[in-house]
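Sync notes, pocket subgroup
Present: LS, DG
LS reminded everyone that the earlier model was apo-only. Rerun requested with glycyl-adenosine-5'-phosphate included. Inputs:
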Amino acid sequence: MDKIVSLCKRRGLIFQSSEVYGGLSNTWDYGPYGVELKNNLKKAWWKSVVYERDDIFGMDAAILMHPKVWEASGHLENFFDLKSDCKSCKKRFKAADLQDKKICPECGGELTEARPFNLMFETYQGPVKDDSNKIYLRPETAQGMFVNFQNILDSRHPKLPFGLAQIGKAFRNEITPGNFTFRTREFEQMEIEYFVKPSDADKKLEEWIDYRFSWYLGLGLKKENLRKRPHGKDELAHYAKACTDIEYNFPFGWSELEGIANRTDFDLKQHAKVSGKDLQYFDDAAKERFYPYIIEPSGGVDRSVLAFLVDAYKEEKVKDDTRVVLSLHKDLAPTKVAVLPLLRNRPEIVGLAKKIAQDLKKSFVTVYDDTGAIGKLYRRQDEVGTLYCITVDVQTLEDKQVTVRDRDTMQQERISIDSLKKYLLEKLACS
Ligand code: GAP
């Protein structure tokens, strides 16, 4: 994991937040290549769950919601961890991690009794900080979709089964964040709420588990690093009847990437009860009103980015050197093309390379770099997963051809400048 953290910093993928002030612990900023990777991941998800299906609508609900939402959802009552504090070193521990130990694992000090600690961040709306203005940063994006269920029925008139999808920030005051971007207090979720007839729920749950599992495989995660793990009854969230996690074999062990749950009619019924609005679905054919069940595939953007980084990281021996390469899937690679002049002291070569880069930028995410010798420039691009490096050399000036180098095979081909765009379009066609 240390190698991934160091690569992320060295190459501008992920930085510690507020680093100039010593950093805010367990909070991370995505740099120039990181934001591209993250955006590509979100685009791939949106394409797979919204654009390629005809039963899912996209949404983008607000982070701040009416406080009653959290009363209805059960988060005010149930969304807490039991924690103990060390009376000496003041460190805070999740009771579950202590496994009944009575002394502090760090300093041997005395621990307080385990107490519930609500994971929601509180804030105040408006200038007056009193309880009547207290609101919360959402701990999941899901509720923004449940409370819009009726709006979607009225505006789009969908028939069951149908779903809503959104990507957005969520906040949890985690007691034990850590493992780089794996568990943080501010993170992004990509969630689907799929409304089904109660009698179809078990079947749809299985379909969604398979659909989401294949998505990770399709974008290149190695099969041996991915598994499905059904939850035991004692692990289920307060709203779930069944849940299966898709887990990835991270350097710190198998851990959850995404949970796919059968939330039953819990959420719609709760919001109907607390808001006083009828949130039932009317089935025209059967002439009956009922609360649909909800199947929820809920994944983490940051966790997925981390899994794809870990999975793609390779060290290869090349002659006497070690090449670090991020073999990311072409749809995820932050940069598709790099244009590199072989001689940076020859204005004709530099000028032509810059022109080629400028032309390619209209079609692909392209960078231009002339700040080192070619070997060094190749290594830099390999480390951020750039798919094709194009070099412009003396011969290019005569034959109007460039060298195109493939990231994974390192094989090189001479391609004419005129057919370069077509060549790359074919290679990079979206999956
Ligand atoms: N709406 C259901 C829900 O929020 P969850 O299992 O608590 O379920 C879903 O969260 C996903 O969100 C997780 O599988 C994980 O990928 C991501 N996630 C949850 N807590 C996180 C945290 N503290 N840091 C990073 N990602 C987190």
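DG: The first helix runs from residue 2 to 10.
LS: The mean pLDDT is 95.
Action: DG to write up.
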